[in-house]
Amino acid sequence: MLLAVDVGNTQTVLGLYEGAQVRHTWRIATIQADTTDELLIRLRGLLALAGAGFDAVTDVAIASVVPPLTLQWRAVAKRLTNVVPLVVSGETDLGLTIDYSNPLEIGADRLADAVAAIALYGAPVVVVDFGTATNIEIVDKTGAFVGGIIAPGLATSAEALFSAAARLAKTSIEIPSAVIGKTTQQAVQSGLTYGEIDRIDGLIQRVFDELGYSAPVIATGGLSHRVTNLSKTITHVNDDLTLEGLRLIYQRSGR
Q1: What's the rounded Cα separation, in Å, for the pair 253 and 225?
Q2: Residue 224 has pLDDT above 90, yes or no
Q3: Which residues are CB-contacts of 170 (< 8 A; sequence separation ≥ 6)?
Q4: What top-level class would CATH report for the domain 97-245?
Q5: Can you give the pLDDT at residue 7?
Q6: Which residues fall within 8 angstroms of residue 191, CB to CB, at 6 or more apart?
Q7: Architecture of domain 2-87
Q8: Sequence ranges of the chain with CATH classification 3.30.420.40
Q9: Rg of the chain over all Cα atoms, to the nearest angstrom
Q10: Quick check: helix, strand or coil at residue 125?
């Protein structure tokens, strides 16, 4: 089976695929200091929970935005399968036209999102990936990846606010019942959640204006469910979009 590994700055998402079917998914904290042995220990526990062992994994596909962990996950894959894993980058054969000044700058997760979005929803399509950063990826009506937008993520914005404002205590990221907060906690929650979704909707409308047409908008990422129900532009939510993109890129490689 294929192990798809999406290494983000805050969380790492793993999917175990049997052919085109995802059998198990896991979301774990990204720990940049992890060694190969520590990752193997964590992976062994996850596979055991699924009733599988290391021998269930026959190949590995990796999208990583954390270079030190890219090296560690490559070593994990080699130990598991004795095969060099597929590590996605701008140099990978994606079957995707990229209209970007330097494709090597594009994060592997962004590329995987675009590949999966086209396959599942067609073109044009827009992806909003809610993570440490909020990434918006744009595929035009010809099926070309034409660029995107990168902004601070919801949790990142919250951490920056709490660390910079001495009198604001940390609060959970929850959607209050009203925009006008009656307490400081409600006011902060309103600013974070309604502010985030209005920023997303505003940016997407600007994207549509620049393209000259609208498109389906797919939300993914760990925080997507917190705010997408309030959006006027998001049309679908797909938590496994990046993993599915990795599977499709792996399938295209013919390995």
Answers
A1: 32
A2: no
A3: 158, 162
A4: alpha beta
A5: 97
A6: none
A7: 2-Layer Sandwich (3.30)
A8: 2-87, 97-245
A9: 19
A10: strand
Alpha-carbon distance 249 to 112, whole Å? Answer: 8
Residue 15 in tokens: 């999917």
Active-site position among 6, 109, 129, 140 = 109
Concerning whether 109 is annotated as a catalytic residue, the answer is: yes
Strand order in the sheet with 11-18: 21-29, 11-18, 2-7, 59-64, 86-87
Angstrom CA distances, 247 to 21, 22, 62, 63, 115, stand at 10, 9, 10, 11, 10
Report the greatest alpha carbon distance in the chain.
Answer: 59
Residue with tokens 């085109």: 20
Q: Which residues pair with 72 in a beta bridge?
A: none
Q: What is the pLDDT of residues 40-73, one digit of tens each?
A: 999 999 999 999 999 999 999 999 999 999 999 9
Q: Which neighbouring-strand residues pair with 125?
A: 139
> 58 Cβ partners below 8 Å, 6+ apart?
1, 2, 81
Task: Tell me which DSSP letter residue 144 carries.
Answer: E
| Spatial CB neighbours of 157, under 8 Å, sequence gap ≥ 6 | 192, 196
Where does the chain have alpha helices with state H? 36-49, 67-81, 108-121, 154-164, 184-211, 224-227, 241-253
> Whole-angstrom Cα distance, residue 242 to residue 25?
12
Cα dist from 158 to 10, 163, 168, 169, 203, whole Å: 14, 9, 11, 11, 20
**DSSP states of 181-213 as a string?**
-SSHHHHHHHHHHHHHHHHHHHHHHHHHHHHTS
Q: Is the pTM of this model over 0.90?
A: yes
Reduced to 3 states (helix: H, G, I; strand: E, B; else coil), residue 120 is: helix
